[in-house]
Amino acid sequence: MKSLGSIRRSFAPWNDPEAKPYISFERVTKRFGDFTAVNDLSLDIYEREFFALLGASGCGKSTLLRMLAGFEEPTSGRILLEGQDLRGIPPYRRPVNMMFQSYALFPHMTVEANIAFGLKQDGMSKADIASRVAEMLKLVKLEQFAKRKPHQLSGGQRQRVALARSVAKRPKVLLLDEPLGALDKKLREETQFELMDLQQELGLTFVVVTHDQEEAMTMADRIAIMDKGQVMQVATPAEVYEAPSSRFVADFVGNVNMLEGTIAERSDNAATITGASGARIRVENAGEAIEGSTVAFAIRPEKIKVSSKPPAEGATNVMEGEIWDLAYLGDMTVYHVKLSDGQVVKASALNSARTMDDPLSWHDRAWISFAPDAGVVLTR
Amino acid sequence: MGSQLVSAIANRAVILVPYLWLFIFFLVPFGIVLKISLSQTAIAMPPYLPVFGFGDGVSGFIANLRELSFDNYLWLLDDALYFNAYVSSVVIAGVSTFFALLIGYPMAYGMARAPESMRPLLLMLVILPFWTSFLIRVYAWIGILKPEGLLNQFLLWVGVIDTPLQIMNTNTAIYIGIVYSYLPFMVLPLYATLEKMDFSLIEAAQDLGCPPTTAFWKITFPLSLPGVVAGCLLVFIPAIGEFVIPDLLGGSQTLMIGKTLWNEFFSNRDWPVASAVAIVLLLILVVPMMFFQRAQARAQEQGR
Fold it and tell me: Do the Cβ atoms of B200 and A102 come within 8 Å?
């Protein structure tokens, strides 16, 4: 992945007020009978972005993609591509291509014919089609499979044919509906990086729909987390993970401890939260939570330190409890610590030293502690 | 060991049942018809010679065998009536099959694309006519097609025509009768293939720049070909030997092999010629099908 880091770091058009969005959903609603699949949703996607729509099944992410492809029309609102309203433009005239979840390869055609299919529709010359097909086959490393039929390929090979077919026309936007869903775990991880390289190489805008948060975190520049037809948060993977905007997002992405409480006192940004049982949590940044309001303090397990002895003087947010459960995962250990108020807090520790003796065991006394900036205060 | 032997015998026996069935109810009657087709007519009971008997002995059997000949087949070649009847049957069956496909395909397509909850009802409607006797349904068409029938009355009332159309007792009536009667045999296999088809293939084709009609001819139709072939065979094969429909709806000038066969058998009491007609009909149907199947098997092997 040549120089991906440096390009990516500087790539943030969403922070640039001058940048024009490439794709805009403007107050889009889609209803199927009584069911509202997409509810008054607005969203901007920028050119060359690798954008992920993440959500559980039925959250409306696939409907959003299908509206972009032209298979569904919004009930209200509009979708713009490069400033052009897409309403009324049929799928076969839209400059977007889709890679289907089922791959939808034409079973009666060879790999070659599948890839050439869209090019033929455009009336490209035979020589141009042949060279483009060869180029695509090379891109997905399937040169020796050109004459095979889809049923003679493995799942991973089919996925690559589907990919080659959908990028062969050089669409302005490539839509990917659960592109790795049908692959096994190992292949999926490899393919994630291949997709990222491909996007860099072709300089296309990718919109991917997935329910797999790891997949979205790995590949996407930005992630839109969806629930019940609405976008809950749009942000970079790091922001989504470290600064979720709501309880839903914090809970949906990764593991989290959600400690409910009220803001007891607040000075500038810092605040103290009192838990239901009287535990006090000092936080550095309470955001917009006002004094007396009910909030959730969300903290990731890896940000909590667990120790068998009381932490040294000066440690903040120390709580005492008992090791309730413990899971050794090899690279790390997950502890469930039951606090004196009965709440169970998850904490994980990286096993950086090569030892098989964990000082902590079931029902041991344990202390947890975390820094004032280790978690976020959520009002929603 | 013993139990293994028993189970081996039992396995053979299970396979034997269908073969025995085919032997008794297909091969033996076929042999009898074949033998009669090689005999000579006689004013006797049964109306042909020689008649093989169990009391003939070996020499009698051989003498009887010597009497068999291909005279009846030569006779079929001699008289243009038979040739014309075969050709006309193939043409009528072919045209009817074509129209059945033309009407049946959109029906099957519509059924396959209908909401899933509707499909059993639509299937039911296709099968429903089978609950009435075939004969009664064909008779009903007489009531519709005859000069003073429902169709003519309706057209006169609407004012499209001012003299009744002569449809009854023409080839048109036969086409209508055959297409109507055999339409379900076209629709059902087509429905089965179309229903199985992944609709996302059409979406993919559209996504790649195909307008819906192009997508139909490039994706849907090629993929439904097995259903098209099955449906066409299911209509063409029985239609070619059809007797009831041409007899009831067709005119005196209509020539179809089923009717010719009936005449030979019942009017002329010429069993040997009738049998020869039947055997030739069988060959006309079986030989192209064998070629077709071999071609299909080869295509499948290549695809693999």
Answer: yes
Residues in B lying within 8 Å of A, measured between beta carbons = 198, 200-201, 203-211, 214, 218-219, 222-223, 303-304
Buried b / exposed e over A140-176, threshold 16 CB at 10 Å, is: bebeebeeebbeebeeebbbbbbbbbbbbbebbbbbb
- What is the topology classification, in CATH, of domain B70-303? MetI-like fold (1.10.3720)
Contact A104 B204 (CB under 8 A): yes
Q: At A193, which amino acid appears? A: F
DSSP A92: G
Mean pLDDT by 10 residues, chain B (304 residues): 78 86 92 91 82 80 84 87 91 94 96 93 92 91 89 89 85 92 94 91 92 93 90 90 88 84 88 92 86 78 56
CA distance B195 to chain A (A): 16
Instruction: Give the β-pairing of A205-210 and A35-45.
Output: unpaired
Nearest to A213, CA basis, from A187, A240, A193:
A240
Q: Shortest CB distance from A121 goes to which of B201, B209, B222?
A: B209
CA distance A66 to B235: 41
Is the CB of A92 less than 8 angstroms away from the CB of B200?
no
Indicate whether this model's pTM tops 0.80: no
Closest CA to A181 of A246, A102, A76: A102
Q: List C-alpha distances in Å: A252 to A71, B18, B155.
A: 29, 61, 69
The tokens of B1 are what?
């060991």
- Interval A58-86: pLDDT, tens: 888 899 999 999 999 999 999 999 888 88
Burial of residue B124 (number of CB atoms within 10 Å: 0-12, 13-18, 19+): exposed
Boundaries of every domain in chain B:
70-303
A152 in reach of chain B (CB within 8 A): yes
Q: How many CB atoms lie within 10 A of CB A259?
A: 21
For the stretch A42-61, pLDDT in tens is: 899 998 899 999 988 888 88
Question: ipTM beyond 0.85?
Answer: no
Domains of chain A (ranges plus CATH)? 4-95+171-247 (3.40.50.300), 255-378 (2.40.50.140)
